[in-house]
Structures are given as C-alpha cells and as structure tokens.
Design a protein that fits this description.
Elements: H1 3-44, H2 51-56, H3 59-90, E1 91-92, H4 96-102, H5 111-122, H6 127-136, H7 152-177, H8 181-188, H9 193-222, H10 225-229, H11 235-245, H12 249-273, E2 292-293, H13 296-327, H14 334-368, H15 371-379, H16 382-385, H17 388-414, H18 427-450, H19 455-462, H20 467-478, H21 480-496, H22 499-504, H23 512-521, H24 525-549
Parallel strand pairs: 1-2
Helix pairs in contact: 1-12, 1-14, 1-15, 1-17, 1-18, 3-7, 3-9, 3-11, 3-13, 5-7, 5-13, 7-9, 7-13, 8-9, 9-12, 11-12, 12-17, 13-24, 14-18, 14-21, 17-18, 18-21, 19-20, 21-24, 23-24
Length: about 550
C-alpha cells in the first residue's frame, strides 16, 4: 500500500472518529438555542393575540421605563467605572492600592440585595431619617422633605452601584495597556489632567468602556428583583405580569421578543460603533504609564471619588445585612438551610454540566472543522444576552408539555404515574442555568484551548491516543485552571440568578435568591439578610479569584 493511500485512509478514519464530536457539538448548540426559538414561536403564533392591547396600554410604559433605566445606569456606570479606573491607573494617592481591589467587591452583592438594604437604611424608620428628626427636632414627615426611596431614581442608583465594576474592570485593563507616550505628548502640548482624559485616554479606551456598558445594559434589562422591589414596571416585570397574572402566554412571549430585539440592537450598535476604528498602540514606541503622585486636596478628592462607589455598592449594603443578621434569631432554621442546599446543589450541577458541555462543544468544533457546528457555536452566546425571564418562558412551557406527554404515555403503558420529571423537579432550573451561562463556559474554555500549542495534542495522537485520549491526557491537565475558573463563575452567577429561578422552581422549592426576594417582599429584613450574606459570601470567593487573575 502506498504512502498516499495510507494517509488518505488514516484521514478518513480520523474524520469518522471525529463525527461523534461534531454531532454532539451541534446537539448542544441546538439545546441552548431551543428556548429562544420557543419564545419566538409563542410570540408569532399566540392562542390569543393581545398585541394591539399591549401597544395601546402597558407596553409603552414598560418600554419607556426599561430604556430610561438602561441609559441612565449605562451613563452612570460609564462615568463611575471609567473615572475610577483612570484615577487608579494614572495617579498615586492614599489607599490607591487597596481601593484598586475594593472597587471589584460590589460584584459580590446582587442588585436586589442592595435594593432592600438601601430602603432599610433610608426609609422613614431607618437610621438616616431617624437621626435627622432627632438632630433637628422634626416630629413627622410633614416637617421636612426627603426624596422618595421606592422610585425609579433609587433603582438607577442601586443598579449603578452593583454594576459599575463591569466597566471598571475593562476600563482599568484598557488604561493599563496604553502606552504612556501619547499622554506625555498631550502634557507637553499643554493639556491638563481633564484634557488628557477626554482627548487621549477616553478615545483609546472606548471599545473596552462600551463593551462594559453593553454588559451593564443587558444586566439592567435582565433585572427583576430590584425593579419589582421599587415597583418600577419594566419589560421584565411585564413578562411576569402578563403571563402569571393575566394568564396570557402569547402576550408574555411578545414582550419577551421586545426584550430580545432591544438586546440585539444594543449589541449591534456597540459593534458598529467601533467597526472602522483602530485602537491599537504601537509596540515599538510603547512605554508604561508612570503614575502621577497627588498631594493635599487633590489626593483626598481622588480617594473619596474612588471610595464612594465602593461604599454605595458594597460597604453600605453589607453593613445593613450584618446589622440585621446579628438580630436574626436563628441562623440554622430549616428553611434557610434547605434553601442553601438547593442553591449549592442546583448551582453545582448546572456549573458542572455547563462546563462539560462547553469543553465538548469547543473541542468538537476544533477537531471536526465542520461548518454547521462552527456556525452554531458563536450563536450559543445569545443565552447570556437573553434575560432570565425570557429563558424561563421559553423553557417552562415546552418542558411542561413534554412532561405531561411522557407521564401520560408511561401511565397508559404501565399504570404508574411518574409525575412531572422536569418541571416538577429542579431539572428545569438546571437547564435554564446551563442555557443562560453557557457563553461564560464556552468563552473561557475556547480561550484556554487557544493557549495550548498544537504540537502537544499532535504528539499524543502520534503515540496512539484518540481524540478523547488527547483531551483527557493533554488538554484538560493544561487547562485545569481555566476550567476551574469557568466552574466558579457559572456557579456564582447561578447562585445570584433570580428571574428564571422564580419562574422555573418547583412548588415550595426555594433557593437563596428566591428566599431573599420572598422575605424582602414581606419586609422581613432580618430573615432576608442571612440568606443575602450567604449569596454575598459566595460572590466574594469569585471576586477574590477574579482579582488574583487580573493582577
């Protein structure tokens, strides 16, 4: 047998061996995309079309509130995140090194936790207004004016305090990677600190800042706990109202498509805004940025400017939680421990399945080189852009129909009723978390695969290892840190997820997030604070890991 013939046969055998990976990658992509497809189906083929009624009544209000929240939170987080990153990278002042990492901590506090902590702190019976009445001798609310706490403005403040680290992380990295030469030239031409920031630093870091703002806006649209607590009607709360209260699935799906369209427009505009722009710096003339020491009032102002976001996003809510949790009668009450177990179990299983699916899909696409999986893989990232309420809608109804069909078939054949296997258990929650956070695992794993030299798996294949053997013996040991990071990030996001959990949890099945929402809605702050601290503790682990990875 000639060499060319043997090579052709070997190539054919490798393609056949790669087929299961290619098929598996396509199946995973289809499973991730099915909930989104289901939402569009319900929207375009409703049993009762109330779209004209929505347009004439509630939809404009939902859309207006959502847009106002998105752009307000986006503008504030862009200013706070980029401004803090600029001060941290470009200047030296007291507490700078500590604040550099403290500004990441608000990521550990979900926005809905910060919402009821802020209300408890600023409400009429809270310490601020009580102190004002005691200080000035006021006797009732008629004696003084205080801004309304449960309002859209308060929701903007809470969401901005919880989400600005997304912009801060990316802006800080962008400022650190810039060469100091343009800033030295601008200084020589007479530009002051503000001029250098606006004319040099900000344009060069704009892609990173806009990417962070896009994430912030998507998280704002996804939020349910904060806006529900502040009684702000948005598109997300509209999905809950139309579906659960009005009982109209088609109307809820139509609102969900509006949310998805808003997200698609947002992402498209962000990409188009930097399509023809180049922001790379020349490696030849690269010089690291030298921080400018600040003295006196300027140093104090910089420290205060960086401390305030940390105070609003982390220190204030955590202090309120700790003060109430110390008053809680029992940290080990059965409902809390049961919610903790549910959270750890569902989040852990979802993280494991998500990362396994991400590894399988990325590896299958890489070794098969088929067009269909390669085209589907980027599209699976839409799950992260889709709000939890949208995914809950797209998962619950098809799964409920399958559950009933399957249970009726088993009952007809055997006389035994197995019950609802998916919607009656935590399986639907696990699926929602997998779909929602698949992009995190896929992106992390794909980056890890790209850092491994192709010669290593080729050597393993030449020693008789198949595709599975090369993955198990070469790739996974080398990318164990990235896989661990993906597991942690998916787990933490699953712990904090609220809208999908509220829609998909079985009856009497609480997680820490739903327990916090339930207790806070009943104004039982002490009972909500303990579960909130547990969520924050889990988030802190991820933030510390993230801080170490971004040194």
């Amino acid at each position: 047998m000639s060499d060319k013939t043997s090579q052709f046969l070997a190539k054919g055998r490798s393609v056949k061996r790669a087929d299961p990976w290619s098929i598996g990658a396509a199946v995973i992509a289809i499973l991730v995309l099915l909930p989104i497809a289901a939402v569009f189906y319900f929207a375009f083929f409703p049993s009762e079309n109330i779209w004209p009624h929505l347009l004439a009544t509630t939809l404009p209000r939902y859309a207006a509130n959502s847009l106002i929240l998105m752009f307000s939170v986006g503008a504030i987080t862009a200013s706070v995140g980029a401004g803090a990153a600029w001060l941290i990278v470009m200047y030296d002042f007291p507490m700078r090194r500590w604040l550099e990492w403290a500004l990441l901590l608000p990521l550990a506090v979900p926005a809905y936790v910060g919402a009821f902590a802020l209300v408890d702190f600023l409400e009429y019976a809270g310490p601020v207004q009580t102190g004002l009445r005691g200080l000035f001798g006021w006797e009732s609310s008629r004696d003084y004016w205080f801004p309304p706490i449960r309002s859209r403005g308060a929701a903007v403040v809470v969401l901005s305090g919880a989400l600005f680290p997304y912009v801060y992380i990316l802006a800080r990295a962008a400022f650190r990677e810039q060469s100091g030469a343009p800033f030295e030239v601008a200084r020589a031409l007479g530009a002051g600190p503000l001029g250098r920031f606006i004319r040099v630093g900000l344009p060069l870091a704009r892609p990173a800042i806009m990417a962070g703002v896009a994430v912030v806006m998507m998280e704002t649209v996804n939020d349910f706990g904060t806006v529900d607590f502040f009684a702000v009607q948005t598109l997300t709360t509209g999905i809950f109202s139309v579906w659960l209260q009005a009982g109209n699935l088609g109307g809820a799906a139509q609102i969900a498509t509006c949310v998805l369209a808003l997200i698609v427009i947002l992402v498209t505009l962000e990409k188009l805004s930097r399509r023809r722009s180049q922001f790379s710096s020349s490696a030849r003339g690269f010089r690291p940025v030298v921080r400018t020491p600040l003295q006196g009032m300027r140093a104090a102002a910089a420290a205060i400017a960086c401390f305030l976001p940390f105070f609003m996003g982390f220190l204030l809510p955590v202090s309120v939680l700790i003060s109430h949790s110390l008053d809680a009668a029992d940290w080990a009450r059965p409902g809390l421990l049961r919610a903790l177990w549910h959270t750890v179990f569902v989040g852990g299983v979802a993280a494991l399945l998500t990362v396994i699916g991400g590894v399988f899909m990325v590896y299958g696409v890489r070794i098969s080189r088929r067009k269909l999986p390669s085209m589907l893989m980027p599209v699976t990232a839409i799950g992260y852009a889709a709000p939890g309420a949208v995914l809950g809608l797209g998962i619950l109804v098809p799964l409920a129909a399958f559950d009933n069909w399957f249970a009726d078939g088993i009952l007809a054949l055997s006389g035994w009723d197995p019950g609802l296997l998916f919607t009656g258990t935590a399986a639907a929650l696990v699926l929602a978390y997998v779909v929602r956070f698949f992009a995190i695992a896929q992106g992390t794993v794909d980056a890890a695969f790209g850092r491994i030299s192709p010669s290593l798996p080729m050597a393993a294949r030449s020693l008789g290892q198949g595709a599975g053997g090369a993955l198990r013996r070469v790739y996974l040991p080398l990318m164990s840190a990235s896989v661990g990071s993906a597991l942690l990030l998916v787990f933490v996001d699953a712990v904090k997820e609220l809208p999908a959990t509220l829609l998909l949890r079985p009856f009497n099945y609480n997680t820490l997030a739903t327990l916090v929402h339930e207790k806070a809605s009943l104004e039982k702050i002490a009972e909500a604070s303990t579960a909130s601290l547990m969520i924050t503790g889990v988030g802190l682990v991820a933030v510390i890991f993230l801080a170490r990875a971004n040194r």
